[in-house]
Amino acid sequence: MINISQVLPHAKPFILPDLVVSIDLEHGQIHTRKRIEVDDYFLNGHFEHEPIFPGVMLIETMAQSAGILLSQLKQESKTMFLAKVADVRFRSLVRPGDLLEVFVQLQKEKGRICVFTSEIQKDGEVITTSEFTLAVGDM
């Protein structure tokens, strides 16, 4: 089992994936899970009477999942920076109680630049898709 807090440079409340469900290093894939709790830090004020998990935090959840994958592929923990986000699609709102399944695939790697595709599912339906780039190491 992967201890997420040991491989990501983040601290609570900014560690977003709760669990690594599976990882396939040969194919550059990871599946993580995130439950949106009613007291989730990122729901505070977003919105006061109708809490919705922010879309930008969905992107960050995908990026952190990619960071976990890279830490296992490279067998080291390095700081990674979100360098580019492309073609993001949000198809559904995310609310307290939702269980998110996050799937990330490494598409290509050149030097310290890694490109990923990702999707988030809720109740078996794809609710968010994105392509994004992480830069590994110092900026």
Q: Could you explain how this protein is built, in words?
A:
The chain is of the alpha+beta class and 139 residues long. It has a single domain (13-136), classed as Thiol Ester Dehydrase, Chain A. The chain has 2 helices and 6 strands, in the order αββαββββ. The protein has helices at 4-7, 55-74; strands at 19-24, 29-35, 80-90, 99-110, 113-122, 125-136. A 6-stranded antiparallel sheet has the order 1-2-4-5-6-3, covered by helices on one side. Strand 4 and strand 5 form a beta hairpin. The longest helix is centred in the middle third of the chain and has 20 residues, at 55-74. The termini are far apart. The mean pLDDT is 95.
Supply the helix-strand structural class.
alpha+beta
Helix content: 10-25%
| Alpha carbon gyration radius | 14 Å
* Count of alpha and pi helical runs: 2
The residue-averaged pLDDT reads 95
Q: How is the CATH topology named?
A: Thiol Ester Dehydrase, Chain A
Strand order of the largest sheet: 1-2-4-5-6-3
Tally the structural domains: 1
Number of strands: 6
CATH superfamily: Hotdog Thioesterase
The unreliable regions are none
Give the SSE order as H and E letters: HEEHEEEE
- State the shape: globular
Task: Kindly estimate the percentage of residues that lie in beta strands according to DSSP.
Answer: 35-45%
Distance between the termini: 30 Å
User: For this structure, what is the CATH class?
Assistant: Alpha Beta
